[in-house]
Amino acid sequence: PEMGVTRLPVQLRRVAEADVSVAFEQLQSADGLTKMASTFNQRDIVMGLCAVLPDEVEVTPADLDHLAQRFIDERAILVGVAGTDAAVRTCDVIRVGEVARMVGADETRYTTPEMLATETSGILGATTAVPAQVAQARAVQSAVDSRTLLSEQAAMVVALTRSGLRVQTVVGEAGTGKTYALDAVREIWEGEGRPVIGIALSARATQQLRDAHIQSEDLRTVASFKAWLAHGGLIPDGALV
After folding, report:
1. Which of 40, 61, 211, 229 is the most exposed place for a label (fewest CB within 10 A)?
2. How far is 125 from 166, CA to CA, in rounded Å?
3. What sign results for the dihedral spanned by CA atoms 40, 44, 49, 51?
4. Over the stretch 151-166, which tens digit does the pLDDT of each residue have?
5. CA–CA separation, 166 vs 131, rounded Å?
6. Separation of first and last alpha carbons in the chain
7. pLDDT, tens only, 96-118
8. Given this model, what pLDDT does residue 169 score?
9. Which of 203, 204, 208, 199 is nearest to 226 (CA)?
């Protein structure tokens, strides 16, 4: 009869300090807990430990809880406490159909020192740099007057063209007219002779930027934009991204 080859049973062992050190380094790295989100909770740490600890290591649920708390104490920074505004600001947002839901707003959230330093650097670069060019007031007013804009939309157009800030964020629910207002912003900056470049997370999301009449040659996904830069692409001086 044919004989099959079977694997010998793995001899499980207790987790060693070297295992913990390697696992913690992996969780703290750019490819770890902050690869897909800037914050995480204790449950995320436990799941991460299960993924990075060696297969031959035997750990109990109590061990995992202990290691997760140790990671928090040694490697993490508290950024949002459950039930507070900070928790809402640091939670993740997912879209289910046409509904956006906040996940984690009722949980204590953490981040790594590296992620916090990256975000802090970006904020400081945006808020302490030399002020950006502002559009002419009459051009802004003309673009606003030529459209039927709500007060919030008009305020968005003015902020994105007259504030002098180099980095700005617009937040609004789906269907509130952000794209319609963005078309006015594009018109203003192109009238000032400044190129307008559109970047979206996915190819599907680029349609909203097309609706704002951003030209297809100036429209890319994040991935293709990064590849374009890596191959020598240059953002023109004075461009709006």
Report:
1. 61
2. 9
3. negative
4. 999 999 999 999 888 8
5. 7
6. 70
7. 555 656 666 667 889 999 999 99
8. 86
9. 199
- Residues 26 and 49: their CA atoms lie apart, in Å, by 9
Q: Is residue 1 over pLDDT 60?
A: no
**CA 138/CA 120 separation, integer angstroms:** 35
Mean pLDDT of the chain: 86
pTM to 2 decimal places = 0.61
Residue 104 to residue 40: CA distance in whole angstroms: 9
CB of 13 closer than 8 Å to CB of 56: yes
Could you tell me the two tokens for 136?
A: 């002419």
- Say which residue the tokens 């950024």 belong to: 79
CA gap 220, 228 in Å, rounded:
9
Look up residue 146 and give its amino acid: S
Q: State the Cα–Cα distance between residues 22 and 139, nearest whole angstrom.
A: 58
User: What's the CA gap between 224 and 219, in Å, rounded?
Assistant: 10
